[in-house]
Amino acid sequence: MIKRSKKILMTAATGLAVLATLGSGTYLTMHAANGVSSVSQTAAPTTATASGTKLTAANPSGTKQNYTVKYHDQAGSNAATFQKKTLGSAATAANQVDYFGRSTTGPSVKLTHGTRAVVQGTMGHTYVHWNTGKWSVTAVTSNADQSGTPTQFADQVNNQLQQQHLPTDATTGAVTVYSQTTGSSAQADTVKWQSGHQLYTVSGQSAAGTVKLAQNSD
């Protein structure tokens, strides 16, 4: 009787060990399935070309809910990043978009394609702002930048936006780009949009390349 009890206990222990192994394996498989290993598993584009510069995606990191895709230019330098975050609510995601409504005040200027924009100046920069559909657009020019006027830069941005739409699944979105891409005053260009609980952010070192990545996204 004692020998039989020991045999039953050993059999039960072996069964539990098998279940533990299967359970662990199932968890690891589920976790692996939730991860992303190629750009095709994300909303990010594989490539984007703008102003003669081609950006190419490297392998993404993260999960389907939260991932990052980095982009290199022809020289192999880091040039842009595409990121998705899943937040606790749609309102939380929307609050991080930095959307500017149509109530922005300032002198009015007419851009290409009949677009009306508002001009504001502060702290050595000129901001040209306009709205298009669910999106707000802000083109920022440093007053020290002698390569063109604020309106000329805003026209370049507006022309690009007219050629190809931004992500259509966006509930709200914001484009903020800078004319100056080098020097101490250079800042990252960004395109952000919210879709449900998801916040997508494209940031880069050139206005045209950053916008193009967003336009090419799924």
UniProtKB/TrEMBL annotation:
Keywords: Lipoprotein, Signal. This is Lipoprotein (Putative). Residues 1-32 form the signal peptide. The lineage of its organism: Bacteria, Bacillati, Bacillota, Bacilli, Lactobacillales. It comes from Levilactobacillus zymae.
